[in-house]
C-alpha cells in the first residue's frame, strides 16, 4: 500500500458514497487507475466493506456504555466460551482484549438504564466465569471519527 492508496482510503472513509470520478478528482488520478486501485484494496481485504454511519440516538439507542470485564479463569475453554457468546450479543458493537487489570472492554448501545440492566442480567451474567464487571456510561462525546490518521 502506497501513499496514493492511503489517500483513497481516507477519502472513502470521509464519504463512502462518492462516485469514482469524484474520488479520482479528490486524489488526483484519472478514473481508470483510481477504480483499479479501489478494486485491489477491496480484493486484498484492506477495504472490508461499506456501511451507513447512523446516529445511535436517532435510531433509538441513545446510551453508550463501556463495560470492562475480568474473567475468573484464563484457560482456553473459558476464554473461547466468553468470546463466542459475546459475538452473538447484538448490543455489543465492539469487544477488545485488554492488557492490565481487566480482560475485555465492550462498547454497548442500549435504549435506557432498564435495557442496560437487562443486558447485564440476561446476556452477560449467563455466560458465566466472570469475576468482575466495571461500567462507564458515556455522557458526552468530544471526538468521533472513522477516518484514519495520515
From TrEMBL:
Record organism: Ruegeria arenilitoris
- What is any one GO biological process for this UniProt entry? regulation of DNA-templated transcription
One of its Pfam families is: HTH_24
One cellular component term from this protein's GO annotations in UniProt: cytosol
Keyword DNA-binding among record annotations: yes
- Which PANTHER family does the protein's record reference? LEUCINE-RESPONSIVE REGULATORY PROTEIN, TRANSCRIPTIONAL REGULATOR AZLB
The protein's matches in PROSITE patterns, at most eight in alphabetical order, are given as: HTH_ASNC_1, HTH_ASNC_2
> What Gene Ontology molecular function terms does this protein carry?
sequence-specific DNA binding
Keywords assigned by UniProt, alphabetized: DNA-binding, Transcription, Transcription regulation
Is this entry keyworded Transcription? yes
Q: What is this protein called?
A: Leucine-responsive regulatory protein
The protein's superkingdom reads Bacteria
Residues of the HTH asnC-type domain = 1-62
